[in-house]
Amino acid sequence: MTPLECLRLQGFPKRFEKQINILEKTNFKVCTTRAINKTNNKKIPGLSSWIPKTISMRYKNPFIHGTLAIERALLISLGYYDEEYYYSQDFKLFTDLYKNNEKIYEIKEPLYLLNTKNNISSEHKDRQKFYFDQALNSSIKKQK
């Protein structure tokens, strides 16, 4: 059975239940999962899933945004998503979480199907990189 078939049979229907259990039964206020890349059936993140996030975040966004489960009060306290970030808005939120000393629980099991083809990240890599760097430095400068 392929990872995608496993996801469809076991993971997908249980994703929200598993994430809500983490939020309700632990001290974590944020939870993500791994995913299956729809294009190639590979688990993502790959290696960066096992590297401390404070290290991998220097080079890439190690979280799958579509899997984000976050307590509403925490999201409100952060001011929601930063509207100045059209690109890398999810990464900016994750950096804000870390700056506020929030721990992010990652379920290592892929529970999400991610389409990486023709999306904003693949279509506008230069702008993504610019805003990614801004999020790392925590200051937004408008791109010309």
What proportion of the residues form beta strands (DSSP E)?
A: 15-25%
Integer-rounded radius of gyration: 15 Å
Output the structural class: alpha+beta
What is the N-to-C order of secondary-structure elements (H for helix, E for strand)?
HHEEHEHHEHH
Largest beta sheet, briefly? 4 strands, mixed
Q: What count of helical segments does DSSP give? A: 7
Whole-number count of domains: 1
- Categorize the overall geometry: globular
Give the number of DSSP strands.
4
Descriptive notes:
This protein is α+β, with helices and mostly antiparallel strands. The chain has 7 helices and 4 strands, in the order ααββαβααβαα. Strands 1, 2, 3 and 4 form a 4-stranded mixed β-sheet that branches. α5 runs parallel beside α7 (125-137). The radius of gyration is 15 Å and the shape is globular.
In short:
By secondary structure, this protein is an alpha+beta fold.
Question: Can you give keywords for this protein?
Answer:
disordered C terminus, alpha+beta, globular, four-stranded mixed beta sheet, 7 helices, 144 residues, 4 strands
Could you give the topology of this structure?
Layout: H1 3-11, H2 15-25, E1 30-37, E2 43-44, H3 53-56, E3 69-70, H4 72-77, H5 89-99, E4 104-114, H6 120-123, H7 125-137
Parallel strand pairs: 1-4
Antiparallel strand pairs: 1-2, 1-3
